[in-house]
């Protein structure tokens, strides 16, 4: 049965209806009794690659940019990786291969994708202050000391905190490794407790490295979810921006009526002891399906949250806080992209450039009338500036 949106007589598909796109009705967090005043601001946009999704951009010490992405080999059933592994439709992660693109002109143009021979979707990608690259895919962490030409595995002490390997564990799609002032690295990962019974068994952890990513351990539980992106405030407090899922909203908060990712919500968790203990998640004020979110701290103290808008208009948006995340201006978001054909898009991870501009990588589903076209996604960047008087 259709549902009536509160405050209107507009009916929308019920979450179980196939036409609702797993709960993405477009009205599950928008206020339909509002209209928008639009102001256009200058920005620069370029295309990284067609057919590659979820780009993550990092800046090398010399100034060049690197962007990860993944290519889906679903139309190549006999695809074999350099180490002899074969892509298999029953193991979806083997169909997706990591790739790397490079720009020497601050993102205006990009090299052709270079396949890395590693199955899996890059979930995290970071350039450390010494130039070391760290990338996570699946439940593997790899590092490169030579700008991505060669990669070597990191040692991750999964067995010290996670369920056995046959249960789900790995790295959520977050803003990557956080480098602490004393040199310790923090990284977000997730694992199931075993046997899994409720949403409370779906656990996010922060792990640490004291040797520039060669080995990881010393894990602390954060919250019951799989994706948390971290930022360090000048005060020394850590904020984690956690994407809690529909089951969490239903089982913990008692909010029902959504299915799939349509009920996912962005929340904040806090730590005053360098990530050893964390507060319970509190909602930011964004609606459901405005996920995932990635923080960025400006030199003037403004805290940005750049997130995917997986409801109409599909794309990427930004809100900001002037008080270290305690309150957010939800009424004046910046819209960075709004031209994805459906909710398969966004994941807007960003870097701050030396001149104060921001480069945000994201992906879109391009509209295609030909049902035989399968490579219908593209990865883009937009380079933009935060208005001085915003929020």
List keywords for this structure.
single chain, about 400 residues, mainly beta, Neuraminidase, 6-stranded mixed β-sheet, about 40% strand
Summarize the structure.
The chain is mainly β. The chain has one helix at 246-251; strands at 3-4, 11-12, 44-50, 52-59, 65-72, 96-103, 114-119, 122-127, 133-137, 140-144, 152-153, 155-156, 169-170, 178-179, 185-192, 202-209, 215-223, 227-232, 238-244, 265-271, 282-283, 290-297, 303-309, 315-321, 334-337, 346-352, 358-365, 377-384.
Describe the overall structure:
The chain has 391 residues and is mainly β. The chain has one domain (43-384): Neuraminidase. It contains 1 helix and 28 strands. It has one helix at 246-251, and strands at residues 3-4, 11-12, 44-50, 52-59, 65-72, 96-103, 114-119, 122-127, 133-137, 140-144, 152-153, 155-156, 169-170, 178-179, 185-192, 202-209, 215-223, 227-232, 238-244, 265-271, 282-283, 290-297, 303-309, 315-321, 334-337, 346-352, 358-365, 377-384. The strands form 7 sheets. Strands 12, 13, 14, 15, 16 and 17 form a 6-stranded mixed beta sheet that branches. The longest helix has 6 residues, at 246-251. It is globular and about 60 Å long. The model has no long low-confidence stretch (mean pLDDT 89).
């Amino acid at each position: 049965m259709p549902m009536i949106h509160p405050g209107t007589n507009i009916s929308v598909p019920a979450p179980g209806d196939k036409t609702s796109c797993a709960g993405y009705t477009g009205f599950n967090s928008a206020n339909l009794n509002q209209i928008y005043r639009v102001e256009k601001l200058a920005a620069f946009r370029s295309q990284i690659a067609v057919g590659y999704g979820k780009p993550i951009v990092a800046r090398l010490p010399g100034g060049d940019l690197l962007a990860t992405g993944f290519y889906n080999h679903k139309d190549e059933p006999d695809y074999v990786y350099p180490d002899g592994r074969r892509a298999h439709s029953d193991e979806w992660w083997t169909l997706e291969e990591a790739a790397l693109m490079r720009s020497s002109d601050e993102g205006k143009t990009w090299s052709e994708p270079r396949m890395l021979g590693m199955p899996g979707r890059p979930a995290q990608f970071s350039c450390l202050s010494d130039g070391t690259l760290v990338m996570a895919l699946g439940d593997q962490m790899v590092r490169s000391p030579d700008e991505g030409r060669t990669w070597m595995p990191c040692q991750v002490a999964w067995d010290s905190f996670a369920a056995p390997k046959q249960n789900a564990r790995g790295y959520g799609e977050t803003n990557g490794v956080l480098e602490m002032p004393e040199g310790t690295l923090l990284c977000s990962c997730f694992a199931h407790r075993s046997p899994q019974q409720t949403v409370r068994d779906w656990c996010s952890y922060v792990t640490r490295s004291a040797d520039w990513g060669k080995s990881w351990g010393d894990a602390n539980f954060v919250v019951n979810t799989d994706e948390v992106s971290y930022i360090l405030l000048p005060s020394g407090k850590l904020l984690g921006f956690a994407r809690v899922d529909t089951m969490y909203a239903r089982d913990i908060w008692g909010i029902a009526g959504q299915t799939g990712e349509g009920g996912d919500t962005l929340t904040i968790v806090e730590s005053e002891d360098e990530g050893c203990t964390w507060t319970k998640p509190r909602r930011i004020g964004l609606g459901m399906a405005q996920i995932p979110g990635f923080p960025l701290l400006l030199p003037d103290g403004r805290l940005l949250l750049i997130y995917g808008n997986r409801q109409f208009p599909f794309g990427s948006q930004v809100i900001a806080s002037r008080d270290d995340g305690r309150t957010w201006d939800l009424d004046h978001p910046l819209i960075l992209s709004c031209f994805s054909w459906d909710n398969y898009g966004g994941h807007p991870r960003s870097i701050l450039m030396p001149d104060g501009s921001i480069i945000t990588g994201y992906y879109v589903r391009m509209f295609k009338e030909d049902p035989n076209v399968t490579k219908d996604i593209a990865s883009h960047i937009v380079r933009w500036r935060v208005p001085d008087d915003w929020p």
